[in-house]
Write a structure and sequence with these properties.
Strand order of the largest sheet: 3-2-1-6-5-4
Largest sheet: 6 strands, antiparallel
Number of helices: 17
Structural class: alpha+beta
Number of strands: 18
Distance between the termini: 45 Å
Low-confidence stretches: 558-570
Strand content: 15-25%
Length: 617
């Protein structure tokens, strides 16, 4: 491996410092400027949309006044209740209504330009239509169909903005403002509809004033998701994904991929018309000023970096030359000859370094032997301490399993089993056999790896004994995947936790709704076994106390349980399981407890995924 010189290190450090400085300044400037520009563009677009929305509402409100005038006209109301078969009466009302509409429209030049037609349709099937002073003859069937449609969706006495036209050729190029009309008696029943069709092409001139750059565009979506004014001129589009996003976003700004490019959309919903006015610009166009700043920053930074590296190279050479002289003089010292270096009368830092080196050589020759002796003594003490600690761990581990005389109990159980067989008592036989299997499993004090299946079998034998003792049947829900049944874990850790649950989780007895669930998983190099119940749980202060004891990483002494209730003794059982796992696999593993008072408890045993015990019995 090539040795790195001091000059190279200085040069590298200068390179890192300069590069990081330029990178942080450039990145910070680019990010901040991008955010500021995005905010300004967003504010600009919001102002334009607010202005367009205000102007649109103003236009529509002017038409609402015209609609109010038409719907409240006495001739229009009388027309709604005329005899549809009386041609003369129809002619009179039709002439009056058209003249009234013509006078109303021509009084306002703006309305005259943007108006497509005014028409009234009665439920009797007759209609009067005014289109810029021209009389239109419509198919009565068509008018009746449109009337039925208008009566369904027009507001009851209120203005309704409809995306439709009674003439197919105008469909998609106009917006209809409709209102139901009552008869001259002003009763509750609606007699017909008065409607005004507004040309979108004229109204769009107001929207086209919104300046959004070369690739920006403006469009309007109604409250059902259909396009009133589409993003691109042409046939009006139906509801699509973009219009659905507009409705869902409300007045929020969002970025969406449209026609293959990322675009920013700013939406404002008109309180008057329930239209969503939307402005859109490509993100790349918004970020173009920021990209210019980034390019400029990179060019300036690159030039600055080149100049700075040249200065760093010159500076490094100026301070490395005298150090190289010192290096040549120290070569013999590197071989272990403890050779002094002549002080050449230097008064700078290099001279002080040479003087200190000479003092070091003098003292180092005297101290080296003491260091070797101290190191040997330290290794000896560490070895003795490790052996003592290992013996203590073995003693602690075996003391957990040898609390009773297992061989005496095992022989006694065999005798009881013989009596049970003679007396043909299957219950005693089953219970004794289960107890015998438990004792045989418990008396093994070696630390060889056992599987999850072994521990589950031990729990099964325990449940057999428990059910015969209590006279109640209770099944444990084992949800461990079959692929994990041969995973390795510590002997006699699962059954004590199950026993602890039966002792403390169900103080009033086990009910039909109670459950105990055992599950396991492998994740992130760890193998975890979960034991969960829906019992009474732990109070917060008790849970805090138990977690504190688990953090102490020590076995609970038997005398700690003297004079304490069952709850404290249960905590000792949990701590013993926790410490046994740590004895086998290390301090990083063990038992953790989560509990909610009145809801249940979750115990988690954490072990390495590829379990390899650290000690052997």
């Amino acid at each position: 491996m090539r040795r790195k010189t001091l000059s190279g290190q200085i040069y590298s450090y200068f390179l890192i410092v300069i590069f990081l400085s330029l990178l942080s300044v450039g990145a910070f400037s680019y990010i901040q400027s991008s955010k500021a520009l995005d905010g300004q563009v967003k504010q600009y677009m919001e102002q334009m949309i607010d202005s367009a929305s205000y102007q649109t509402d103003s236009y529509l409100q002017a038409y609402e006044l015209l609609s109010n005038t038409v719907s409240s006209n006495s001739d229009v109301r009388s027309f709604m209740e005329m005899n549809p078969d009386d041609s003369y009466e129809y002619y009179v009302y039709s002439d009056k209504i058209k003249k009234f509409a013509e006078a109303s429209v021509q009084s306002v030049v703006t309305l005259y330009k943007q108006l497509n037609m005014i028409y009234v349709v009665g439920q009797h099937g007759r209609s009067v239509i005014y289109e810029n002073q021209n009389l239109l003859n419509f198919d009565p069937v068509l008018v009746q169909e449109q009337y039925d449609n208008l009566m369904k969706i027009a507001g009851d006495g209120k203005i309704a903005l409809l995306n439709m036209s009674i003439r197919p050729v105008d469909q998609g190029s106009v917006v209809t403002m409709a209102r139901k009309v009552r008869g001259p008696s002003y009763g509750d029943e609606n007699r017909g509809v008065a409607a005004i069709e507004i040309k979108l092409s004229e109204l769009a001139k107001t929207w086209d004033r919104v300046s959004l750059g070369k690739e920006g565009f403006f469009f309007i979506v109604d409250d059902t998701g259909n396009y009133i004014y589409p993003p691109t001129m042409g046939q009006r589009k139906p509801k699509d994904e973009l219009s659905s996003l507009i409705l869902a976003s409300g007045n929020q700004t969002f970025i969406h991929k449209y026609n293959g490019e990322e675009r920013m959309f700013v939406s404002r919903k008109s309180a008057y018309s329930d239209w969503n006015l939307v402005a859109s610009m490509p993100v790349k166009e918004l970020r173009r000023p920021a990209d210019t700043i980034r390019t400029t920053t990179l060019i300036v930074g690159l030039v600055t970096l080149i100049v700075a590296l040249w200065l760093a190279y010159r500076f490094g050479r100026s301070i490395i030359a005298p150090i190289r002289e010192l290096k040549e003089s120290m070569r013999e010292t590197e071989k272990g000859n403890w050779q002094y270096i002549d002080e050449i009368g230097r008064t700078d830092e290099i001279g002080g370094l040479i003087h200190s080196y000479n003092l070091m050589v003098t003292r180092l020759s005297d101290m080296i032997e003491r260091v070797y002796e101290a190191e040997l003594e330290q290794q000896k003490n560490a070895l003795e301490l490790g052996e003592t600690k290992l013996e203590r761990q073995r003693a602690e581990f075996q003391s957990l399993q040898l609390q009773i005389n297992p061989h005496f109990l095992y022989n006694t159980l065999e005798t009881i089993n013989c009596y049970a067989i003679v007396q043909d008592s299957s219950e005693i036989t089953e219970m004794v056999e289960a107890m015998a299997f438990m004792l045989r499993y418990s008396v093994q004090t070696n630390l060889e790896e056992i599987t999850v299946a072994n521990e589950l079998n031990h729990v099964r034998n325990y449940m057999i004994v428990l059910q015969h003792r209590t006279g109640k049947e209770f099944e444990i829900d084992v949800a461990i995947p079959p692929s994990l049944l041969l995973e390795k874990m510590v002997r006699l850790t699962l059954q004590p936790l199950i026993e602890n649950i039966f002792q403390h989780a169900f103080p009033d007895g086990v009910e039909s709704h109670h459950y105990i669930r055992i599950d396991a998983r492998k994740e992130g190099g760890l193998f975890q076994v979960f034991i969960e119940d829906n019992g009474i749980g732990m109070k917060p202060e008790r849970l805090t106390e138990l977690r504190k004891k688990l953090e102490e990483n020590r076995l609970a002494e038997p005398e700690e349980a003297e004079g304490k209730g069952s709850l404290e003794r249960g905590g000792i059982g949990l701590m013993n399981v926790h410490r046994r796992i740590q004895m086998v696999f290390g301090e990083a593993y063990g038992l953790s407890v989560d509990s909610d008072w009145g809801q249940g408890t979750r115990l988690t045993m954490t072990m390495p995924e590829t379990a390899r015990p650290r000690i052997r019995g």
